[in-house]
Inverse folding.
């Protein structure tokens, strides 16, 4: 039975992703795995079974001041793997704890050198910077940083409300600027149209008649027309307006009546009244 126990302890099997560090009499001897390997009982020892797959480690920085002295809470995720099991076993006592602390200190350093606005808008830039810094610190340990992802940036609720009000005010300012620019463009187009009508009274007369007709056609009960407009359209005072109304009344009899079954009426003023 004793021989069987010794033989069984001498036979070991490592998984596909495992690398086994072998120490012989306390001195590094070799790396084993994956698959079947043998140990010399009592003489050989295994201090580490190292996983060479990609590992994810979450880390955060709480109440850390940015460059513009704003306290923020930042959560991030680190993707890394062991590329040199010998260095990971011999160069640092606990490589998993070491990489976690290195990530947190790097995150605090980056936050302290970054403005809040840059942090909220440029997460990709911060992630790339963190990857570079952490990779430089962990390279002597045989660890390769694959990527860093900043998950969330939390700011105080009071500051969040102030930023929301600022964004709303900025949107309102942009809306007013756009509206003012639209009014300016409309005024310019009206000025160009006025110049065109100024040199062509017939076109102006036709345009005025069309505007009056469109107003009456929309089932309007009463249309108030200044006497100056009546004279400019050369409708002959109230007689001309009445004739126009009668013409539209025929259209109303053919199905263009208003909701009360009456034809549109026109109120005109003469003599400035």
């Amino acid at each position: 039975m004793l021989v069987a126990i010794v033989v069984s302890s001498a036979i070991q099997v490592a998984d596909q992703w495992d690398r086994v560090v072998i120490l012989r009499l306390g001195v590094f001897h070799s790396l084993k795995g994956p698959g079947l390997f043998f140990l010399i009982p009592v003489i050989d020892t295994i201090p580490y079974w190292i996983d060479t797959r990609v590992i994810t480690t979450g880390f955060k920085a709480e109440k850390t001041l940015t460059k513009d002295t704003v306290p923020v809470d930042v959560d991030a995720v680190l993707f890394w793997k062991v590329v040199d099991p010998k260095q990971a076993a011999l160069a640092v006592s606990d490589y998993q704890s070491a990489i976690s602390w290195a990530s947190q200190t790097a995150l605090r350093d980056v936050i302290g050198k970054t403005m809040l606005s840059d942090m909220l808008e440029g997460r990709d830039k911060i992630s790339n910077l963190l990857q570079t810094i952490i990779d430089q610190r962990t390279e002597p340990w045989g660890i390769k940083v694959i990527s860093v992802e900043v998950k969330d940036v939390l700011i105080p609720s009071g500051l969040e409300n102030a930023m929301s009000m600022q964004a709303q005010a900025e949107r309102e300012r942009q809306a007013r600027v756009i509206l003012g620019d639209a009014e300016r463009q409309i005024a310019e187009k009206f000025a160009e149209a006025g110049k065109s009508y100024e040199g062509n009274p017939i076109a102006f007369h036709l345009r005025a008649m069309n505007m009056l007709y469109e107003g009456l056609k929309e089932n309007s009960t009463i249309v108030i027309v200044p006497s100056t407009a009546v004279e400019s359209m050369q409708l002959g005072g109230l007689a001309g307006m009445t004739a126009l109304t009668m013409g539209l009344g025929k259209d109303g009899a053919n199905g263009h009546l208003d909701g009360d079954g009456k034809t549109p009426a026109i109120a005109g003023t003469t003599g400035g009244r």
About this structure: The beta strands are 11-14, 18-24, 27-32, 35-38, 44-51, 55-65, 71-82, 143-154, 222-225, 265-268. The CA atoms of residues 87 and 140 lie 7 Å apart. The chain has a mean pLDDT of 78. DSSP finds nine helices and ten strands in the chain.
